[in-house]
Amino acid sequence: MKAKIETSAGFRSVSKIIIVCHVYFKFQCSAPSFSTGLLWVKKLGYYQLQQPKEQADDWIIIADESIGIGQEKLLVVLGIRRCNIDFLRPLQLQDLKPILVKSKEKWTGDDIAKELKTVKKQLGEILYAVTDAGSTLKKGLKNSDIKHVYDITHAIAICLEKIYKNDTEFQEYTNLMGQMRFKKCCSKYAHLIPPNQRSKSRFLNIDIITNWGIKVLRALEKNDASEDEKGQLLWVKEKEGLIVEMDKIMEVIRQISIILKSGGLSKKNKRKCISILKTCKKDRMRKFREYFINYLNNNAVHIDKRGEKLLCCSDVIESTFGKYKNEISKNLMTGITDLALIIPAFTSDLSEEEINKAIDYCTIKDIKQWSKTNLCESLSVKRNAILKKVERK
């Protein structure tokens, strides 16, 4: 079970690895098949999801929607009590309790509000929810009367988008990077090409193109490149002002992220962040300072008690979706199936006692009933209903 949950290996690969280990170490027991491993993971996820959550007045939830092929979207809600948060380190999946895993072809704000009201009855009082700025999630939180704390990672991306999206110099820089990548990817200069730019989350990953630009500038200064190679990279020198500025903003973001992602948002940490932001004095850096101070002010209003720290980072649920998407990437056209139970399985501490309880806790029939209740028809079910296999005569 650990070999699957704690690595990126596929179910078939894990089964084969165990067989190899059995042969090499001469174990006297049989290795589980990949289908057995898959069932165990589903059982573990079902067990984690079905465990009763204690009623309390200090619950904090982290919610997000996944996006895949087709209209299917998976809504996931994880929770943690404020008294259990360790603000000396970032959250880990094992710190959280899985509250909700449910799919629909289309989530509306009213749909999410309905689910969140059920969650409130299950948990007790929810102090606030940490999410991105998705319109349906925001509406769902508003309609269910739950305070919204905006995730810092997405807030930073929005700040950067406001600054650079319509900036002529930035657009020219990224366009030249794209052209170089396209023209030189199959040439003898392929080792110089810029990294691929992710169009959907470009501003979440702006550090990637910044780091490449800084490395090129250093290579040009230190004469690490041949004259021929320098000729291919000289255009980057013309964008030095922009690249250095972005690098300075990235350094400010790094320092702020360390403070807020681990230590939470408090009045003390807010002052620390504003002190760091004072270095952003000119042009686009000044704009970033203004946007981010606005973020701090808007979210700090939720601090009700002296010395209180707010959880303001939902990276842990993004990581969860990343691991889940790694699993379904082997067959994206299948859509959302009961493999979604691997998401609550990630929150398990994977102790021998817990795994044994999970395996004995439910049957295949229970998992099928859960799927029928909580998941919409997957792409594979719809496809098979229409494009049935033609029998050869």
Task: Please provide a written account of the structure.
This protein is an alpha/beta fold and 393 residues long. The chain has 3 domains: 2-43, no CATH class; 44-151 and 314-386, Nucleotidyltransferase, domain 5 (2-Layer Sandwich), CATH 3.30.420; 153-303, no CATH class. It is 55% helix and 10% strand. It has 17 helices and 5 strands. The protein has helices spanning 2-5, 11-25, 34-50, 109-123, 135-143, 152-164, 168-184, 206-221, 227-237, 240-263, 267-277, 283-300, 315-328, 342-345, 352-361, 364-374, 379-386, and strands at 56-65, 73-81, 97-104, 124-131, 148-150. A 5-stranded mixed sheet has the order 3-2-1-4-5. Helix 2 packs across helix 3 (34-50) and helix 4 packs across helix 5 (135-143). The mean pLDDT is 89.
Sequence-ordered SSE layout with sheet pairings:
Elements: H1 2-5, H2 11-25, H3 34-50, E1 56-65, E2 73-81, E3 97-104, H4 109-123, E4 124-131, H5 135-143, E5 148-150, H6 152-164, H7 168-184, H8 206-221, H9 227-237, H10 240-263, H11 267-277, H12 283-300, H13 315-328, H14 342-345, H15 352-361, H16 364-374, H17 379-386
Parallel strand pairs: 1-4, 4-5
Antiparallel strand pairs: 1-2, 2-3
Helix pairs in contact: 2-3, 3-15, 4-5, 6-12, 8-9, 8-10, 10-11, 11-12
Strand order of the largest sheet: 3-2-1-4-5
Mean pLDDT: 89
CATH architecture of the largest domain: 2-Layer Sandwich
What count of structural domains? 3
CATH fold-level assignment of the largest domain:
Nucleotidyltransferase, domain 5
What CATH first level of the largest domain would be assigned? Alpha Beta
Classify the helix fraction into a percent range: 55-70%
The description of the largest β-sheet is: 5 strands, mixed
Fraction of residues in β-strands: 5-15%
Order of helices and strands: HHHEEEHEHEHHHHHHHHHHHH
Radius of gyration from CA coordinates: 24 Å
Number of strands: 5
Which consecutive residue ranges, at least 5 long each, have pLDDT under 50? none
Instruction: Count the DSSP helices.
Output: 17
Q: Shape, please?
A: globular
Task: Give the termini separation.
Answer: 44 Å
Structural class: alpha/beta
